[in-house]
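User: Design a sequence. Structure:
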């Protein structure tokens, strides 16, 4: 028996769950399939303990589709972005304050675990959205009138739109033979959360040395102590060595690497390691199919661009799909989604990759240029404000 849905989403990561929520909130009959089992608690094996800073446009969208009310209590506002460059003899520190461009913070930091839980709470409120876990998409057949999805449990689903949210190694992208361009940086990111002896005061601090940035992003207090999420990017050999340090040695290492900006740091979660790459699909569409999130693009974790870019994909896709009839020419519609979103993703990848390479610099001239560039950017108010607006996705 063939089931019928308006929309099928392959992949139940955060991007897939946001898409399921958004289309369900808009009244579509939605099925989301996810190969991994549900994670019922934050200490479970495989839980994603990273955090994401949701910039203003993304937070607006999550508010609109009814998710933010479920995660607001777990969020910490990001009022000031502080950049410290210690790659040259003279320390250069500059603050970028959201009040220069808005009456709102730049964004709000939320644990990926809490966001997943909040999305599931919102989905439970939507009777037209179904999540099936431990199910994979085994095959896809498309034609002008439908997409036929074959699942690992033997079910077949007919839908008008297939959303591929199955990640950077997407099988759906491979099925459609969509080329993908990938760049590796010989870097790893070490992600974890800490408490610290000094309050963060809603300041996100990025400390640059040779090898990559060390970023502390505010979190709500942890057991009565100020807390931040940390992303430590460095050469792969350096991160592997630090990943296995005993806890006391690790705490000393991260306190030193942070420049003591928040006092003494103490690890309070597990440590996870992630490869630093950029990746871009040649197109974000196929017949009756849209690629979103890391299926379409992967951005190094600088400037909170990755998941915010994915939410931008979903916003445009649902705006286009919701304004058309079911019999509309979806080839044109999906092209109108793919072309602008790919152009935006390409621009973000090029910009973030350039910043990342500059942050890795060990050449004295490049280090001096990095420090001088930071000072110049901060001193010229119109330039500073334009860069801040671009950073949060505002024009």
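Assistant: Done.
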């Amino acid at each position: 028996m063939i089931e019928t849905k308006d929309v099928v989403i392959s992949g139940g990561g955060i991007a897939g769950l946001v898409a399921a929520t958004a289309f369900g909130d808009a009244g579509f009959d939605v099925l989301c399939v996810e190969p991994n089992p549900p994670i019922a608690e934050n200490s479970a094996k495989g839980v994603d303990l990273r955090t994401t800073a949701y910039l203003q446009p993304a937070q607006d969208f999550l508010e609109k589709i009814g998710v933010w009310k479920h995660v607001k209590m777990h969020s910490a506002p990001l009022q000031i972005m502080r950049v410290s460059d210690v790659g040259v003899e003279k320390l250069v520190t500059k603050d970028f304050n959201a009040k220069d461009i808005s009456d709102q913070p730049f964004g709000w930091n939320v644990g990926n675990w809490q966001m997943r839980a909040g999305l599931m709470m919102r989905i439970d409120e939507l009777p037209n959205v179904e999540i099936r876990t431990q199910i994979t998409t085994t095959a896809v057949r498309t034609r002008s009138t439908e997409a036929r999805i074959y699942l690992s449990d033997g079910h077949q689903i007919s839908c008008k739109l297939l959303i591929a949210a199955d990640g950077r190694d997407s099988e759906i992208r491979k099925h459609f033979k969509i080329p993908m361009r990938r760049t590796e940086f010989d870097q790893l990111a070490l992600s974890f959360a800490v408490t610290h002896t000094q309050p963060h005061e809603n300041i996100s601090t990025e400390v640059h040395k040779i090898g990559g940035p060390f970023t502390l992003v505010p979190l709500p207090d942890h057991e009565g102590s100020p807390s931040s999420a940390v992303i430590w990017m460095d050469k792969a050999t350096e991160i592997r060595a630090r990943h296995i340090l005993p806890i006391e040695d690790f705490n000393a290492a991260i306190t030193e690497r942070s420049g003591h900006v928040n006092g003494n740091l103490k690890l309070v979660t597990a440590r996870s390691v992630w490869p630093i790459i950029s990746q871009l699909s040649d197109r974000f569409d196929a017949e009756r199919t849209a690629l979103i999130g890391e299926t379409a693009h992967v951005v190094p974790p600088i400037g909170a661009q990755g998941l915010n870019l994915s939410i931008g994909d979903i916003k445009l896709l649902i705006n286009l799909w919701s304004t058309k009839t079911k019999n509309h020419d979806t080839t044109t519609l999906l092209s109108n989604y793919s072309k602008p979103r790919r152009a935006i993703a390409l621009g973000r990848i090029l910009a973030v990759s350039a910043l990342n390479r500059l942050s890795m610099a060990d050449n004295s001239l490049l280090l001096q240029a990095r420090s001088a560039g930071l000072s110049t950017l901060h001193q010229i108010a119109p330039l500073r404000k334009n860069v801040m607006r671009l950073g949060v996705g505002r024009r």
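The chain has eleven helices and 20 strands. The mean pLDDT is 88.
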